Amino acid sequence: MTRGRSLSLLATVLLVAATGCSLFSSPSPRDAFSAFAVALARRDPAAAAAATDDRDAASAAISSMFDGMGKDAWVTVTSSQSGDDDKTAKLAYSWTFGAGKTLTYDATATAQQSGDDWRVHWDPTVLHPKLRPGMTFQYSDDRNFLTPVTDRDGQPLMTWQTVGVVDLAREHQDSAAPLAALLQPFDQTITADSIAGQFAGTKDDTVTVVKLRADDLAGVRDQLAQLPGVTVVEQGALLTADRDLSSPAIDGLPALWQQAIDASAGWSVTLVSTEGSDKGAPTEQLTSTPPRDTPPVRTTLDTRLQSLAQQAVATESRPAVLVAISPSTGGILAAAQNAAADAQGPIAFSGSYPPGSTFKTITTAAAIQAGLATPDTPEPCPGTVTIENRTIPNEDEFDLGTVPLSTAFSHSCNTTMAALADRLPAAALPNMARLFGIGVDYVIPGLTTITGRVPNADTPAQKVENGIGQGTVTVSPFGLAVAEASLGRGRTITPTLVVGQPTAANPPSAPIPQAITDDLRAMMLLTVSDGTATALSDVPGLGGKTGTAEFGDNTHSHGWFAGIDGDIAFATLVVGGDSSTPAVTVSGDFLRPALTGN
């Protein structure tokens, strides 16, 4: 055998195939080394161990090595003769854990004859020269877990914190009642029955009942320790910096944060102890690349506005939602839901509701664009109007006679808007709605959203229903807030949640004619000063539109208020509010402190 001759993995496979020798038959030392190398490259601990003279010990060590290196690790091993002794070989290891993550080293192996075959003499050092009995390998992705998620001003929104994972063993279910009593101050949904339900839904020996923040855990740690079958394990978790912060806008942020720290992660391979009280303790670091600096994940949310929005919706017992967006940037400033809304899911972004009279901004914009009217155009506002056998009433059938369009808008004349909608082409409302962002498909990193649906109206009855925000028209609170922000911006906004992670929009942004935006803003200001939203006339600069939308059997309705004040555009919904008054009240509770700084 020629000194220094290398046996590559491919050459080894060809050799085995050509000679008809299996990996378990090694008529020469060279075959034993090759069989061992090939089996390691296949991640086959049983075959690699079978090529040694101590199958049991080798199998355990090799299995532990692959477990510690992780399922995504790949290894190639090349054997070559070491010196003049063909019974000694150098094993060149090359581990790959992903792009730019490679660990290489050499180990020495010797072969011993067993009958007609040769086997690699087992010693942990054939896997690594520093490996000893009672040790194994551990690969680790080293991440910057302390990277925060911040609001738009850099204030911490979510941070890495210690939590206590409270588990209960199945054999001690009699501890469920006292455990629930201890935990209810932190989560009122935890009961003995809920814990029993957890066990009924799994075959696991233990269930995780709750994860407690560190300060909560400190108050009950001693009592928990006294309950049979209860264990507490501390671990890290990404939590809101303020325990009271709650928003469907933050639900997707942990995944984006994980992507950020994964992208900048370092990595290391360490030998660790497998025995005794030091199990898992590092004994030797084989390689280490520290994580790169990871900038904070900065969102567009405003912590103060989010808190004010939460306080505002919390005063309403029915499901209530408020979404606020910056017209100048498209950044989502706040998204709040009360507990009743939370029970229905993330309805702020994915709920679908008839918008009622708030949609009259779109109908009016379409009428202005079509040249049918201006704010000063005299328009009839009778108590009722019948179009194609569909009778549309004003609320309580109020009758203003003939008034300027601006007055009909500010007093929310259904009859005026129905008559204008009847004169519009079938696609006029869908086209104008998309210009305001309703019906646009947005792909926003960190969020799942819908804006709404405005189909073509092919009959007069459909036109008049859609024109007053009923019929087949639906929006989400997010979609209506997008429409208000687009009006404030003068073009379709592109809403975002995380700075530096752009939103895809289909169709893309387009300008709204200035004549439309100027006229609508003036009419919305009139709605607050002298129309249906005079309860908010004390809020300087506020323009808005109220809305009431029937649903179901038409005996109940949703209440809306949407508007713009400075760089805050918003939409407020009270599900089943039966009038716009509750939504107006919630909006005022949000806007007054938001705009005054109190």
Question: Beta fraction of the residues?
Answer: 25-35%
CATH topology of the largest domain: Beta-lactamase
What is the CATH architecture descriptor of the largest domain? 3-Layer(aba) Sandwich
Distance between the termini: 88 Å
Give the class-level CATH name of the largest domain.
Answer: Alpha Beta
| Count of domains | 3
Structure, explained:
The protein has 598 residues and is of the alpha+beta class. It has 3 domains: 6-133, Nuclear Transport Factor 2, Chain: A (Roll); 149-289, Penicillin-binding protein 2a (Domain 2) (Alpha-Beta Complex), CATH 3.90.1310; 303-596, DD-peptidase/beta-lactamase superfamily (Beta-lactamase), CATH 3.40.710. It contains 19 helices and 26 strands. The strands form 8 sheets. It has a 5-stranded antiparallel β-sheet. Strands 7, 8, 9, 10 and 13 form a 5-stranded mixed β-sheet that branches. Strand 14 (320-325) and strand 15 (332-337) form a beta hairpin. Helix 5 (176-183) crosses helix 6 (192-200), helix 9 packs antiparallel against helix 19 (581-596) and helix 12 (360-369) crosses helix 15 (428-435). The longest helix is centred in the C-terminal third of the chain and has 17 residues, at 514-530. It starts with 5 loop residues before the first strand and ends with a helix. The model is unreliable at 1-23 (pLDDT under 50).
